[in-house]
Structures are given as C-alpha cells and as structure tokens.
Amino acid sequence: MELINQHTKKIMEGCKERARAAGLRFENESLEYVVTNRDLLELSPKIMIPTLYDYWVHDVEVLKGKGKYELYPHNPYETVINTRPAISYYNDNNPDWLNVMIFYHVIGHIDFFQNNLYFRHTWDYDFTGEALSDKRVIAKLRSEHGHWVDYVIEFARGIDNLVGYFPELHRLFPVATTQLPARLDYYFDVFLQNIKKVKTSEYIKEIERYNQCKAEYADLCDDMFFAEVDRRHPEFKALFTKYKEHKSTPPLDLIQYILENSAFVNKEENKWMKIIIEVIRKTSLFFQPQIRTKIMNEGWASYWHEILFLQDDRIEGHEVDFARVNAGVTAMPRVGLNPYALGMRLFYAIEEWADKGRLTWDFQRLTDAYQREKFDSTLGRGREFIFHVRENLCDFTFINQFINQDFVTRHDLFVAGRRLNESKMVWEYYVKSRNSGDYRQMLLDSLYHPPRISIDHEKGKRDNTLYLVHLFEHKPLIKEFITNTLMGIEYLWGGPVELETHEPLPKAARSDRPKSADRAGEPPIQWQRVVYTMKERKLSRRVAA
Predict the structure, then answer these.
(1) What is d(CA 358, CA 280) in angstroms, rounded to the nearest whole number?
(2) Sign of CA dihedral 10, 14, 17, 19
(3) For residue 155, pLDDT beyond 60
(4) R_g of the chain computed on alpha carbons
(5) Of 256-270, 419-433, 489-503, 505-519, where does mean pLDDT reach its minimum?
(6) First and final C-alpha spacing in the chain
(7) Which of 15-19, 64-68, 179-183 has the lowest mean pLDDT?
(8) Can you state the angle between helices 294-310 and 96-115, rounded to 10 degrees?
(9) 97, 145, 252, 517: which could form a disulfide with 257 (CB 3.0–4.6 Å)?
(10) Closest to 494 in 3D by CA, of 469, 463, 515
(11) CA distances from 100 to 6, 24, 305, 528 (A)
(12) pLDDT at 273 (0 to 100)
C-alpha cells in the first residue's frame, strides 16, 4: 500500500476545485492510497481501517476472502473511510479518465461524511489515530492476559449492535427546544391522561383554566394554577417528584449498563476488561451512521460523479467507456436493491420536484394525473433543496418521505413475489405489487434495524440476575444467536441473564381464527411471550405467564 503519485494527486486536486465550485463542502486534506488485491483482502475485515485492533476473526475473514477471490476475481473501484483526513483506496491500474470519475465519487462521499448530521459525533477527532492507540493497548493486554482478551472482544462484539446511538447523539448535541415547563408537561400529558384518565371535556376545561390563569396572572400563573391542582389532587406532588427522579436517569445501552453495574468487570483484577469493552462500543458508535445512511450516501456520491464528470472536459474520447462503467454501477435491477441506483435516482427526482414546486401543498392536493404531470411553478430551488436533504436525513427518513407513486411509476418499480411452480419444481418470481406504499415498506424492511433491548431493574433484583426485555415489533430474534449472545452477556455480567421476547406460537397450538386475505389464505401468526435464561452456561426456555 502506497500513496498515489504526484500526477494522480494533481488530478484529485483538480476534481476538488470543480466539486467546491458546484457547492460541495469538505476539508482540504485527504489521503489516497494505491492498494493491491492482497491489501484489500486484509483491510476488508477491519472495515478498511488499517489501524483497527487485531482479532482472530479478522484472520478468518482474510482466508475466506482469498478463497472467494480465487473463484470470483473482483475489485472495487474505490473505498473511502470517514477519518481525519479522509482516506481512500484505489486500484493501481486505473487510467486517468477513470480516476477522474472515481475521484468525484469519493469527494461526494467525503462531503456526505463531513456534512450529514448523523455523522456529527465523528467530526472532531481522527478515528484512525484513536484506533491505533486502542490497538496498542489491546496488544499489551493480550500479552498479559492471553486468549481471555479475545473472549472479552467476542462477547462485547456480540452486543455491539445494541449501542445507544441516538441517545449518544442527544447527549453530545442536546436539542434546544421550547418545551413546556416539566411540571405543566407532566400534569397535562401524564397525570391527567394516564393516571387520572379524565374525560375529554374535563381535560379541555383544565386547559381553559390554565389559559385564563395565564391571561390574568402572567408570571404568577404557574403558582396560582398548581395551588389549585394540589388542593384537588394531594397526591400530585409526590407522583411528580417520583417521575422526575425516574426521568432524570439517563438511558443506558446494554454495554454501558454492564460497564457501570457489573460486579464482575468492576473487580480490581478484571478492570482491564472495561478498556476492551469501551473500545468495542466506541468502534460500533463510529460506524453506526454509515450503516444507517447507505442508500443516501451511495446515491449522493453517484449523483455527483455523474454530474461533475459529464461537465469535465477530460471525458472527451471516453464517453462510451464512462457509459459502460456508470451503467454497471448505477443500473436499477429488476429484482433486488442497488443502493447506488436507487439513491441517485431519488436525488435526481427530489431536485426536479423542488425545481418545479412539486413538494408544495398546491401540488400534493392535485388528483388529476394530467395536471400533476404538467405542474411546474418554476421555483428553481432543486439544487439547494437536495443539499438540505443531504444534511438532515438518514435512509429511513429519506425513503419514508420521498418514495411516492410518481417515483415508483416513473422507474417502473415493483415488489417481487416468489412462488413454487409445482409442475416444473422451480421458483418463479412475479410482480406482486406496483403500489408505492408496498415498495416503500419493502425498502424500509431492508434497512438496518437492530433489536431494542431494555433492562427491567425490578425483575432483575433477585440473585444478581440481569433481566433483559426485547421490545417486540413483530420481528422475532434470530434463535441461532441467542445461546452464544446470552453466554457472553452472562460472562461479562457475572451472574444469570434472562431475556424476555416473543416467538410464533407453534401451528399445532394455534387457536382457530379467521384466515387473513392479505396472507394468501394463511392464518395470522399468533405470538407468545417467552423467557430465555442463561445460568452457569446452560440455556433454558419457558413460556411466560
């Protein structure tokens, strides 16, 4: 692995100038490396971070990658990582015209990394530098504790998808809000509705009473209003105090909770484990935004490599070559998902809609197909708007907000179904739906969505038990992972672990219920609550009452 030569670096700097002129924003410094196939195979398991800590699974992945490469030789055009400065990797046999196209794509990624708000916790430090420091610390611990270091890494990595990414963003960047005072908020939103469960008429009367009090007493309103509340509801003050104590406790993800409350890892002789667990958690938090913005990120980079390269005079004589490469990267498959293609086309569509004013209520309320097709208020704000989208959205909001019937119809998109042809004994794919709602849901279902696990402190008081509750969203946990994951948690916790979740009721035990038409005649799934217990490395399962 070596830095690109000065001739190629000059091409990259020229691409940066054109990209900045088009409105992209990114730091001046960047590092570009030429890599061999061997380099790529060794970097891929470390997520292209050369300084990431060593771990035996990385070696296994390298061997797997070598085997795959021998059967199916392939090379990525580029890889770029979100570091300070940004680092990107390239093949050593690219012609200049292809490097121009690839550099524009990379610059699009860098612009996305350094401006999308979901990455903001990564902006102020160099992850590669910290990773190198962590690697040295782990190597030192491995020399002292041997294979136990790898056990701790493996157990921590088993739950690193449960890190509190959004709570961490909120902690680092609290949002300034104009919320009501806490006491008033609790009274109207919790006390009256959830505890007293007052009728709607009584609730409205209380709102009117507060508004009248505010008009008459201004700054003294809260004291006057709650004096009457305390007279009517003597229990209010105690309930509010208890609510504040509970709410003031910051939400902890499972890894944080273990770090702070595990008697095992907090023993003096085991505190070295906390260093490793913190490294695993920090690494997971660093990569969370990349997982959650895959479609947007690749779409943004593809949009800009096409826009900028088509305007670059260095394309002359290579139009056909560019068309071939670009089509291979951004072709929309009939079945399956290409994030480059979908994201790029959606950015083009959003730009057009914003230019023509089709994101306004005047357009949205139109039902006539001809009027919708001809609508154009010539706002001309498309480019400005897609920069706003790039800055503020993630894949979920991007898809949920902009995948509509116009987009699905224009690109002839559909949800594919699969059925068995019993006469030929082959699987057949067919068009199941062309509805935008179904297509949108298919995309949302494909996004990264780790399970949400909370900790029940009351149920976990006995026998130093860690009681975990899976927030059920009609997606069961993968059974194959439960045993090893709970075994790792038990080790780090130093006591029994219980996991409450839901699983489908066996067909033989299901009650007779009407069949659901939208399930092709199959009865709806019935769910039962179950509890897995890991104690002394033995897993048991029971149906919860």
Answers:
(1) 45
(2) negative
(3) yes
(4) 28
(5) 505-519
(6) 60
(7) 179-183
(8) 140
(9) 252
(10) 463
(11) 14, 16, 9, 57
(12) 96
